[in-house]
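User: Structure with GCB, tokens only please.
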Amino acid sequence: MNCRFSYFVTILSMLTTALAAQAAGQETSFMTNVYGRDYQLLNGKWNAIVDLYDQGEKMKVYENRTPRTNEEFFEYSFEGGLRLNVPGDWNSQLPELKYYEGTVWYARHFEADPRPGERQFLYFGAVSYRCKVYLNEEKIAEHEGGFTPFETELTGKLKDGDNFLTVMVNNRRTTDAIPALAFDWWNYGGITRDVMLVTVPDQYVRDYFVRLADNDSKSVRVSVTLAQPQETEVTVSIPELKVSQSVMTSPDGKAELTLKTPRLQLWQPEKARLYDVVLSCAGDTVSEKIGFRYLETDGTKILVNGEPVFMRSVSFHEEIPQRRGRAFSEADAHMLLSEAAALGVNMIRLAHYPQNEYIVRLAEQMGIILWQEIPVWQGIDFEDAGTKAKAQRMFVEMLQRDKNRCAVCFWGVANETKPSDARNAFLLSLLEKGRAMDPTRLYAAAFDLVYFNEETGLFEMDDPFADNLDVVAVNKYMGWYHPWPVPPTEAVWNVVPDKPLIISEFGGEALYGQHGDRDVTSSWSEEYQARLYEDNLEMFKHIPNLAGVSPWVLFDFRSPYRFHPVNQEDWNRKGLVSDQGYRKQAWYIMHEFYKECSKNCRNGK
Ligand code: GCB
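Assistant:
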């Protein structure tokens, strides 16, 4: 192809991709495995303007103008003012921004060297919560949703040499947002994950889904989509297994193939096994480490590779407590995951939103099962069609990013929702989308409406939506939000008795280093929290279909509605580990339980 023609084909394909995305009702789509591509990080210090009254758009600050005549002046300048780290939340970078909810403009220059035959994309790991992106004064993208990535194509828009990038970021809470008006974590705003300038060839492997073909290890199924619709050869190989296979894409640029893999070893919890998988088409090669495992449920059991696994889980927010800010780096992922591993877990419920890729990829290397969910967290407006479409897009973005991460075994659709027709239709639409895209995972949701039935003397739940799920999870704060109606030894559950049940949250608050009466909730003492753990562990013996437990939560985390001036000070103190990184008494109880459980727990027995 000559250069001019190739340029024309590229522009045409950009248009078809954009139109197809629009037709599918998606605002955004992005390439698979961006970290496997040739990229330049645009992280670092960015200039910033705090725009409390949302005037920046009207003033066109993204034009970044400076006076050229004696009469001209501008009431802004990106130079000489605030500088913010990217990635990073703004709240932890300046005392005045600790509680800030509004707009901040970010801007920076970068050098580009666009070449014919190549395409460039700007990729944001996450911007919290909504944003508009401008390149060289032109608006090129917008996105809503603080925990999933998006990209925008820059081919044909980049200047040779200096380019100016502006991002308007807004984290104001609204009723139609996800999460909505109130949620129990800090509303961090900012460009909170990596920003990447990605270069790929004109034609490239844009998307792929690699997984086991069947519930055994004998063959691997691969679905590939090329960037441009074209009949051409694609090859998939797993060098370590000495397998490689080629197939022609159909005219739409898509192909399916199955690799025979008789010697494949499966990825298992606590025994990670990953293989380099290489995908190529003419002029493009991309590879990454991928693991293989299969999931099923059998009555009340969760099976990984055909074996029942009891989920010894814990949750954490994407937050480094000691820094009082969002986690964003590989080093952060090491800190969070090593503390989780020390507790003895084989699973993490990533609370309450998709967390950054460093966490997901490292957990996979460590053999830790993940549950990922979108922040459909209480208070969501299920009646609002726009909110529903937003949730679907977020869910698709989460699946799209991590579909090749075998560690992710559960996709969570919601946390603590109340039954209603609108809620059911909303959540069902997520399940339908998910199952159509990815039938290889277990679909779950966490409920909080389990109650003690005085007549039957059992803990029960009436939420028919549970029938739609593979695994049902319950958050239950016995001994904290709920006093014990019967002693823990008599606390027997009859909740979705035919399905696997995970206790996805339990716990209570304690201020590290505070000692007090183990019988008094308001002592906020380590002793009370430890006793609460003992009681709950006792209760778990009476949940016949128990398939896993997940204490809430690994670390104390910041939450603006935790008002108690002495015991909380804007912190949710349910951590097993304090904000300073110290283990509380309850940590040792849970650790001991998990040590025993790793030998003895088989779905509650
Ligand atoms: C819950 C929520 C979780 C909260 C927790 C609490 O049920 O799912 O996000 O942080 O309770 O501490 O109240």
